[in-house]
Design brief:
Layout (H helix, E strand, L loop, with lengths): L1 E4 L12 E3 L2 H8 L5 E3 L2 H32 L3 E5 L7 E6 L1 H10 L10 E2 L4 E3 L1 E10 L2 E10 L2 H31 L27 H8 L1
Parallel strand pairs: 4-9
Antiparallel strand pairs: 1-2, 1-3, 5-7, 6-8, 8-9
Length: 215
């Protein structure tokens, strides 16, 4: 199906581009979500007449998203969930859960479709999640998924503490090598490296020669 894009679509095109897509993709997603129009003669004329207005609206929404991104990019959100001793959640954290959490935290108008997850989160830990605030503005937030707020605090500080400990141990080893080890050699053990070593003649006597001497 040939369509007119009403916004930038990743791997498809920019606002105003006319592209061909599979019918199912257009009917089930792009058209219902108002992300595109069928590229009919009437719609092409309509887009041309409204293109300036459409682009201004897009620019305004993009500027708003960019401003919002400044306040939440790389921000950590704590998510409390029940989990077993092995860290597996009793359930999962889904795109809908994340969208609701952001809304509860005061982030406006975030839907599950704007949350990018390969699959639901099913274990404790700190996870990076991409949020598409606008087709041209994305941010990364961190979800600290824990059973309690105390555990969340430990998860956030733990890796840094471990890293500091490792760096301290490495620095200690480096200091030892830099200081060196003083080796004292007794005068009686001095070796003249310029003197050629002469092998002990007796030590080189063969077994046959030894037998002859005894005779």
């Amino acid at each position: 199906m040939k369509i007119i894009l009403l916004e930038k679509i990743e791997k498809l095109g920019q606002l105003g581009d006319v592209v061909n897509v599979k019918n199912g993709y257009a009917r089930n997603f792009l058209l219902p979500k108002a992300k595109a129009l069928r590229a009919t003669d009437d719609n092409l004329k309509y887009f041309e007449s409204k293109s300036v207005e459409i682009r201004k609206k897009n620019d305004k929404e993009m500027a708003s998203a960019a401003k919002l991104s400044e306040s939440i990019n790389n921000k950590t959100f704590i998510v409390i969930r029940q989990a077993g001793e092995n860290g597996q959640l009793f359930g999962s954290v889904t795109t809908r859960d994340i969208a609701n959490m952001l809304s509860d935290d005061g982030v406006p108008e975030i839907t599950r479709n704007q949350v990018s997850l390969v699959e639901p989160i099913k274990a404790l830990g700190i996870v990076d999640v991409r949020i598409d605030l606008h087709p041209e503005v994305s941010v990364i937030i961190k979800l600290n998924i824990a059973r309690t707020s105390e555990e969340a605090d430990m998860q956030e500080k733990g890796p840094l503490n471990n890293l500091d400990k490792e760096n301290t141990e490495i620095d200690s080893v480096v200091d030892v090598f830099e200081e060196g080890v003083e080796i004292n050699i007794d005068d009686s053990q001095d070796v003249d490296l310029n003197t050629e070593h002469t092998p002990d003649v007796d030590a080189d006597i063969t077994e046959d020669e030894a037998n002859k001497k005894e005779e």
